[in-house]
Specification:
Thrombin, subunit H, alpha+beta, single chain, Pdz3 Domain, 6-stranded antiparallel beta barrel, 310 residues
Length: 310
């Protein structure tokens, strides 16, 4: 019983600390008499918060209910449908934010805790594990794919969208984004590393300026002996499934079945790593791309182009 009591105490303490940063987000949409609901999380003491793009997209007004019962007007700083993320600024003081963790440190099997307002039931807490990493989901941005997604069995329902997925240290490892309706234990979250990049771009530019390579890939695990031979501390890399015709990746000579090991002189372990390095500074620059082709390391040079805003 002592182990169960310890677990119970830890989860209760984590939920109590984190609830201070949890938001119940409500939006007014044109042509709708009732408010639509979702969740959010405060990430800075000056009122910056994250939620999902699909929670606030097209709204004419946004308000957020805080854990202490206050209601604050929220301004939409910007949104990024490609990653289903949005940044809000709250008109409120005395906020206690949560910290965004390094989602690359997540492991399959890690315990996670989800917070949100499913069906408007504010400050609901559920617990589960990381079921898988590197999943892909369709985005709301004209058929684009969200890559590097966290899968969890922490129970989520409509209204959890935009709420935080926490690690056992109470830091945000993901932003809850989707469920499989009719499924059991199939829920998904955007990695915190992606959220950190997107928030930084929106706060700096009002939108996410992106370079693009023009490839489709997923995270894979390199065999231990191969990872050691390549001198990689992290055995993960990104396998290329397809290369778009006429894209920067195609111009660089990247091929399907290549495995991306590094980009811009830094190791690549996840799709989120690629996304973060395809920032505005990569647009038009000649950058090194390190791949594994048929078991042999190959160095390529790629010149990313700016992805047109949609």
């Amino acid at each position: 019983m002592s182990i169960l009591r310890t677990l119970s105490d830890e989860v209760a303490a984590l939920a109590d600390r984190a609830s201070c940063a949890l938001l119940h987000v409500q939006t007014l949409r044109p042509g709708r008499a009732r408010l639509a609901g979702g969740s959010g999380v405060v990430i800075s003491p000056d009122g910056i918060a994250l939620t999902n793009s699909h929670v606030v997209h097209g709204s004419t007004g946004i308000e957020a209910e805080l854990a202490d019962g206050r209601t604050a007007i929220a301004d939409l700083v910007g949104e990024d449908p490609a990653t289903d993320l949005a940044v809000l600024r709250l008109d409120a003081s005395g906020l206690e934010p949560l910290t965004l963790a390094d989602s690359n440190a997540l492991r399959v099997g890690d315990v996670v805790v989800a917070l949100g307002s499913p069906f408007g039931l504010a400050r609901t807490v559920t617990m589960g594990i990381v079921s898988a990493l590197g999943r892909t989901l369709p985005s709301q941005d004209r058929g684009r794919i969200m890559e590097g997604i966290i899968q969890t069995d922490a129970p989520l329902n409509p209204g959890n969208s935009g709420g935080p997925l926490l690690g056992v240290d109470g830091k945000v490892v993901g932003i809850n984004t989707a469920i499989v309706l009719g499924g059991q234990g199939l829920a998904f979250a955007i990695p915190s590393n992606t959220a950190s990049f997107v928030a930084g771009e929106i706060l700096a530019h009002g939108r996410v300026r992106r370079a693009f390579l023009g490839l489709h890939g997923e995270e894979v695990l390199l065999p231990g002996p191969l990872a050691r031979r390549l001198g990689r501390n992290d055995p993960r890399a990104v396998a290329v499934h397809a290369v778009e015709e006429g894209s920067p990746a195609a111009d660089a000579g990247l091929l399907p079945r290549d495995v991306i090991l590094g980009f811009r002189g830094e190791p690549v372990a996840t799709v989120a790593d690629l996304h973060r390095r395809l920032d505005a500074g990569a647009i038009g620059a000649d950058l090194p791309l390190d791949v594994l082709r048929d078991g042999v390391p190959v160095g390529l040079a790629v010149r990313p182009r700016e992805r047109a805003p949609r």
